[in-house]
Design a protein that fits this description.
Radius of gyration of chain A: 19 Å
Shape of chain B: globular
Largest interface: A-B, 39 and 42 residues
Strand content of chain A: 15-25%
Strand content of chain B: over 45%
Structural class of chain B: mainly beta
Order of helices and strands of chain B: EEEEEEEEEE
Number of helices of chain A: 12
Helix content of chain A: 25-40%
Strand order of the largest sheet of chain A: 3-2-4-7-1-8-11-10-9
Number of strands of chain B: 10
Order of helices and strands of chain A: EHEHEHEHHHHEEEEHEHHHHEE
Oligomer: heterodimer
Helix content of chain B: under 10%
Structural class of chain A: alpha/beta
Bound molecules: zinc ion
Largest sheet of chain A: 9 strands, mixed
Largest sheet of chain B: 5 strands, mixed, barrel
Chain lengths: 378, 137
């Protein structure tokens, strides 16, 4: 297998952009990544685009608008992990020698408010069994029962990610918030309050992968692994709504992490920086447990000990995470890759993690499916 | 006044001693699933048969929904959670009749009920199943 390098990254800020089309958001991110990789038309042999709500041929529209069409182009949908799935496909193409350079991008303009998902049958919507935050709430309640996680810990996660986001010009929310404000914010679905949930929004991210390093300080993709839930493993990112939860089954995130660590030849102790799924504050803690950043059931103690903060052994979500960036589904996973590339190059400015050389990105979403990517400087 | 209709067919039935859910039971691995499907979602075996299950269980997880989710036709607020059915252990994602958080707790005995969710344009009542705290059904 050939090595896979990140040779260019680009972002369109995450937020609300009523005057910009979805295609326009994608164009910005793609142009920035291609410029950094110093390539244009003819410089890549395949393109993979992650989007969930984009509709027909989302990626083709962006490449057409930029005069870059012609290469094989695949639109990828895998819920919150869509961008990760696109990256995994592109990475495999390069590692196998099917192509030398591939463009990966993700983009989204999320509807406002509670997200409607075609995942649910119409009768489930009618009966009120398709309320996404309610599922997050059940998962949070289960975590709090099984992991010694308290409401104050959920607030602490939100405070920490918002504090990190202050230094990220691409984030939607850049103001620090206090724990009191989080705990006093509107109750959405007990135990989750408004400031413990990320906001669905808009944005785009792009990454150029190549078999050879480019001009920028080299960053290698050591692993990009996608997994879906095992039958019966309900109440992960989303319950498949069928029957008994098999408590003994590993979750999609645990499976993807296990394979990724093995493929990359690293473990949690070797990581210097992590970007993980924090759709809500409880998801942040559960993700940390699933990735082995703290013991299973030890998430509450991990948070109370400052786990994941910028001064800690292993900073988590230095970008501010989805809690401060917002979540444009198709773009969020690649947004993590862009952040890690900057961190591993030492180019993350005020939110730089000192001496970061190995990073991990994690997304998990509807399906249920998860993606874990391990990157290394050099 | 027209007859009520279920929100979807083959989810629940009325019985002389209360309501029952229609769960599938796999002939191969013997596990239950809900809603019933001819294919077992655990082992993939064909030929699962629907059978009535319930009406009692224990509350496993719960919350209360106060904002109208997309497509929802019932009233607000409403209880939402997972009930683990007695004997067979099947965990069912369900509406809950109780909307006061302080009146719900882990392991609470629950009983299946059929309730009116909303009405169609022609006045036909639409019914859904829910679980109520035992003694309040
Ligand atoms: Zn079976």
């Amino acid at each position: 297998m050939r090595p896979v390098y990140v040779t260019g990254v680009g972002l369109h800020a995450f937020g609300r952009f009523p005057d910009a089309s979805l295609t326009a958001l994608g164009m910005v991110a793609v142009q920035r990544a291609l410029a950094e990789a110093a390539i244009g038309r003819g410089g890549f042999q395949a393109a993979f685009c992650g989007s969930v709500y984009g509709g027909v041929a989302t990626g083709h529209k962006v490449l057409t608008a930029l005069g870059l069409s012609g290469v094989p182009t695949v639109n990828v949908e895998a819920g919150c992990a869509s961008g990760g799935a696109a990256l995994a496909l592109a990475s495999a193409q390069i590692a196998s020698g099917a192509c030398d350079t591939a463009l990966v991008f993700g983009l989204e303009k999320m509807p406002r408010g509670m997200i409607r998902s075609s995942f649910f049958e119409p009768w489930r919507e009618e009966a009120g069994l398709a309320a996404t935050p309610a599922y997050f709430a059940l998962r949070a309640q289960r975590l709090m029962r099984e992991s010694d996680v308290r409401a104050e810990d959920l607030a602490a996660v939100s405070v920490q990610n918002h504090l990190h986001g202050v230094h990220n010009p691409y984030a939607m929310y850049r103001k620090p918030i206090g724990a009191e404000a989080v705990l006093a914010s509107a109750l959405v679905c007990d135990p989750l309050r408004l400031l413990m949930l990320c906001a669905p929004n808009e944005g785009a991210a792009a990454v150029v992968l190549s078999s050879r390093p480019g001009d920028a300080p080299p960053v290698r993709v050591l692993a990009a692994v996608l997994r879906s839930h095992l039958p019966g493993s309900v109440l992960g990112e989303h319950t498949p709504l069928a029957g008994l939860a098999d408590d003994a089954s590993p979750t999609p995130s645990e499976m993807a992490a296990c394979v990724a660590y093995e493929a990359a030849g690293v473990g949690p102790a070797d990581l210097h920086v992590v970007e993980l799924q924090d759709t809500d504050a409880a998801r942040h803690i559960l993700s940390a447990e699933e990735l082995g950043l703290c013991p299973r059931g030890g998430g509450g103690a991990w948070v109370r000990g400052g786990g994941g903060s910028m001064g800690s052994r292993l900073p988590v979500n230095p970008s501010g995470g989805l809690l401060s960036k917002g979540e444009p589904l198709g773009a969020s996973a690649l947004g993590q890759i862009v952040e890690l590339a900057w961190q591993l190059r030492g180019a993350a400015g005020a939110r730089q993690v000192a001496d970061a050389r190995v990073g991990l990105a994690h997304t998990v979403g509807r399906g249920a499916n998860a993606c874990v990517v391990v990157l290394r400087a050099g | 006044m027209s007859d009520a209709r279920p929100v979807a067919p083959d989810l629940f039935v009325a019985a002389s001693d209360g309501a029952r859910l229609l769960a599938g039971r796999c002939r191969s691995c013997a596990r239950h699933h809900f809603p019933a499907s001819p294919v077992c979602p655990y082992c993939g075996a064909d030929g699962a048969a629907a059978e009535p299950v319930g009406p009692t269980g224990r509350l496993w997880l719960w919350t209360v929904v106060t904002t109208r989710p997309p497509g929802y036709r019932g009233t607000l607020p409403y209880g939402f959670g997972v009930v683990e059915l007695d004997r067979i252990g099947l965990r069912v994602v369900t509406r809950l009749t109780e909307t006061r958080l302080g009146h719900l707790h882990a392991g609470q005995p629950m009983r299946l009920v059929v309730e009116t969710l909303c009405a169609d344009d022609d006045g036909t009542p639409v019914e859904a199943w829910a679980f109520a705290p035992e003694g309040e059904a």
